[in-house]
Amino acid sequence: MHSAPPSHSGGGIVSVLAVAGIVGSLMQTLVVPLVGELPRLLGAGAADTSWVITATLLVGAVATPVVGKLGDLYGKRRMMLACSVPLIAGSVVCALAGSLVPMIVGRGLQGLGVGMIPLGVSALRDLLPPQRVGPAIALMSSSMGIGGALGLPLSAAVAEYADWRWLFWGSAALSVLVAVLIGLLVPATPAHGRGRLDVTGAVGLGIALVCLLLGVSKGADWGWGSGTTLGLLGASVVVALLWGLWELRARDPLVDLRTTARPQVLLTNVASVLVGFAMYAQSLVVIQILQLPEATGYGLGQSMLAAGLWLAPSGLMMMAVSSLGARLSAARGPRTTLFAGALIIALGYGAAFGLMGWAWGLMVAGSIGSVGVGLAYGAMPALIMGAVPRSETASANSFNTLMRSIGTSVSAAVVGVILAQLTVTTGGRVLPSESGFRTALLVGCGVALAAALVTLTVPKTRPAPAPAPSPPPATPSPSPATPSPSPAETSAALATLVGLATSTVVTAPPDPPARPAVPPPTQVWPPPPVRIGHEELGPWRDAFRPPRHGRPETEQTPPSETVDPEDTMYFSENTPYQRPNPTPLSETTLPRAQPADQSAQLAALSRQVAELHAENTALRAQNHGLRTENAELNAATIELQAQNADLRKELDVLMQGVSAWVQNLAGRTA
């Protein structure tokens, strides 16, 4: 069940988790304004100080799927609180750092906090009623873009007008605030997963990701044809294949590859890689155009702070469209929302291609692209959670977040290669050329269109069919594909066992004349229709004798006896048993059963009855849970109606005040 306790506000839960997402994404852009100053501040070279950004990327990518799996096993709220600890510690270490190594260690600890974002998205499924999950997921997903867009101008302002250490002291204070809010306002979430953490799988995935991301992020510095780069990329492929084989054989895999291979999950993850590529490529191109000097003829000469302020509206647009994306997903499905988001991202690239000569034009283009990113980021978790069981929600969302991280890393490498190959020399400096920026924009637009095409191949999500009513006991007709027995079969089996135990033992009839040997037929389940009546069954040991020649042998009733139809039970799948013409019991030709067969068959039937009892108990418990959930939904609906009534009353009071003010103003004017 996914409803919060009555003592907690659903709006408060969403707000706290959204703030946690903003703080988590803020850590990724925190040091961007300091990139040029880090060599001087830390006394190291530019190539070495680039690890300050790379460390957060690597640790976050490796930790995200592991933290997601732990969230399924031990509860998402508990793991969000656990993620806040390294987030706080890493911020303090960075604030106190005076050299390169402590700064890299602190940034790595901050990367562990990135796993808080998919945990928060997954927790919404457990904490909110179904009708509120969609809008909450959209808002939570948009918070990642909000943190990145708003964090850049804020960190630039602090770096320009204050000591750079205040950036990390501020992030430590925000992390403490988030931990306190989660502990006070977010209820505990149930642990749906079973088993234990796949340590071997976690290590294998970590090695594969480190090799891949190192090769991609450092390829431009080391050389794409160098042995180090090629060796890392080749090792990532080999380790990934071995990791996949291990996960397929593991009892409790870190990532269930069979679930991930479902078309809806697989294609959504592919689209996530492409959307992550398109989103990051645009931000890389736009921020550089804004900051390049005007002497180039295409640069706009903006400072870091001004450039951040020009891009700030894009983050606000992501928040503004979150509710729109939720309504579109509810009306047309998240697949349509993801498709629309990818097309709008491509439209943003087109706008940037035509408006790159003006700062306001790039702001408009960035806002259009952010609208598409907001729609896409809100739809992807909904598609993932709609195709995986509740016990794998956090790990599946974390894996989807990892796919987006891989997309952004590949995007940085590809855009870097394009801009490094197409350059101009201005004032003794080698700078990316205008054609290089336009080429990067065209590549990003093509990737966004590819994401839209991949989205079209995602299977459409359909609402779950309503459960069919139980068939009447007299004519049970269970579906052959359903493994669990129907209630009618349960009652029939119980009655069979009772009838066998209480039937009157009669003298066995004399052996029939010798007949030609016939091979015994194969007994199947369910058995053919067998009439079981009070005092008509004959010797109880003959009840389990298989029929001759594949036909049910009829039990005969002495002509002197009559049987009440209510005392007769027919065990059949399709049609009631047709009552045969009465014949003397002595003419019954049922063969005798051996004592060993009797015990084995009675034991098998007893086991089956026990299983049917257990199944019946489980169905009763499930029914009780559904009724409880329905009652909670009704209570939430009543609460929303009451809030709506209160808002209407407040609006009436406001309008009455405005009317009185207008009348008073009109009287004074007159």
UniProtKB/TrEMBL annotation:
GO molecular function: transmembrane transporter activity
Chain segments carrying region Disordered: 462-490, 505-597
Main localization of the protein described in the UniProt heading: membrane
UniProt xrefs under Gene3D superfamilies: MFS general substrate transporter like domains (1.20.1250.20), Multidrug resistance protein D (1.20.1720.10)
Biased composition (Basic and acidic residues): 532-554
Compositional bias ranges of the Pro residues kind: 462-486, 509-530
Lineage top rank: taxon: Bacteria
Pfam families the record matches: MFS_1
Membrane-spanning parts: 12-31, 51-68, 80-98, 136-154, 166-185, 222-246, 266-292, 304-326, 338-361, 367-389, 401-424, 436-458
Residues forming coiled coils: 602-650
Domain Major facilitator superfamily (MFS) profile: 13-462
Bias kind Polar residues: ranges: 571-597
Record InterPro entries: MFS, MFS_dom, MFS_trans_sf
Membrane topology designation: Multi-pass membrane protein
Keywords, alphabetical: Coiled coil, Membrane, Transmembrane, Transmembrane helix, Transport
GO CC field: plasma membrane
Cellular localisation: Cell membrane
Xref: PANTHER family: MAJOR FACILITATOR SUPERFAMILY MULTIDRUG TRANSPORTER MFSC
Name of this chain's protein: Major facilitator superfamily (MFS) profile domain-containing protein
Species this chain originates from: [Actinomadura] parvosata subsp. kistnae
Organism lineage: Bacteria, Bacillati, Actinomycetota, Actinomycetes, Streptosporangiales
